[in-house]
């Protein structure tokens, strides 16, 4: 609000400066040099006020930006706080001992499955293994029939 009030004040001073310059010109033409000089001094003072007002507006805008950035920082910190609380609750639910127990159970299950696989793979006798290898060799040695190749010459390419 203060920034807007300062901008309105600037507009009033700018209008006043334009009027005073015009009046000073009229006074000079009328031969009233002293009054014109006094009016120009007043105009110069108002120009200095205008510069100060511009600096104040700049300071206010910088402060508004700082406030907005601080609000964003506060939201980030609040988000981090909530995230940290959530992580702590999750850690309470899942302890290190629980994780170690689950990993041990998983490793036991994998070992058990490996033993089952070995038993099943071991149920084939050596004769079965030999028969499987013979059949594999027979399949790979069978002749594959290829289609006949045409005997006519290929047509010539026309450039």
UniProtKB/TrEMBL annotation:
Residues 43-70 form a coiled coil. InterPro entries: Snf7_fam. Keywords: Coiled coil, Endosome, Membrane, Protein transport, Transport. Its main location: membrane. One of its GO terms (biological process) is protein transport. GO terms for cellular component: ESCRT III complex; multivesicular body. It comes from the Eukaryota. The keyword Transport applies. It is found in: Endosome membrane. Pfam families: Snf7. Belongs to the SNF7 family. This is CHMP6 protein. It comes from Steatornis caripensis (Oilbird). The lineage of its organism: Eukaryota, Metazoa, Chordata, Craniata, Vertebrata.
